[in-house]
């Protein structure tokens, strides 16, 4: 399969497994990217021992120059890419507290970075390319309780400025200490929730704008045991690539602008009544089972 695929933040965790599984499926060129060059190269070497041949390129999604350099490399070397999986993300430093500095770091890594990728890498997507934004159950609209933002974000006429305004409203309220708990279904991992709600909403905006037969979807990959979750979860890391690989290789190309689930189903993102939000008691129960510090 002579395709070029890029997976951001893929030296470990879900991204690493996606790279592995794309290689196993015979995708022509699969880019394993990482902010830290040594970790990225080590990950490539590990996969080579399995007989797989991903290509490493340094990429810090929060650094505009790094994204720009990578886009130029891809254009020069391949003319464009067929598959883009926006996986790079971080979680809140403290699962139960919300601070401004931490919130800003999370939003930069998980949301604003995807706007940078849109600016530099979307122009080199080939016709009928597939883009998958790795979201979360923390990214469904049912994580919100604020009526104004629920209505604005689920509007058929959603625009980028709406999503940006939502993110900035959150950051301003944290900075000014005007955050209201009633605006959210739960306040655990709150900046992470906001980043993934924004990413899921952005997916809908991107799909409306992109054209050229390209499909852009967001995916909740499941509660997977990764470093990010302190190795807690309901699914083994080894299975983390099943849904992402299915949606970029096997799913019908007509699937566009959707919010997808790890069991390969589609969930209606705009349906606040679904109540499929991330539940902190389940999350923390698993964290405590696996970590004596909690």
From TrEMBL:
Transmembrane segments: none annotated. One of its GO terms (molecular function) is carbonyl reductase (NADPH) activity. Keywords: NADP, Oxidoreductase. Coiled coil: none annotated. It comes from the Eukaryota. It holds the Pfam family adh_short. Belongs to the short-chain dehydrogenases/reductases (SDR) family. This is Carbonyl reductase [NADPH] 1. It comes from Papilio xuthus.
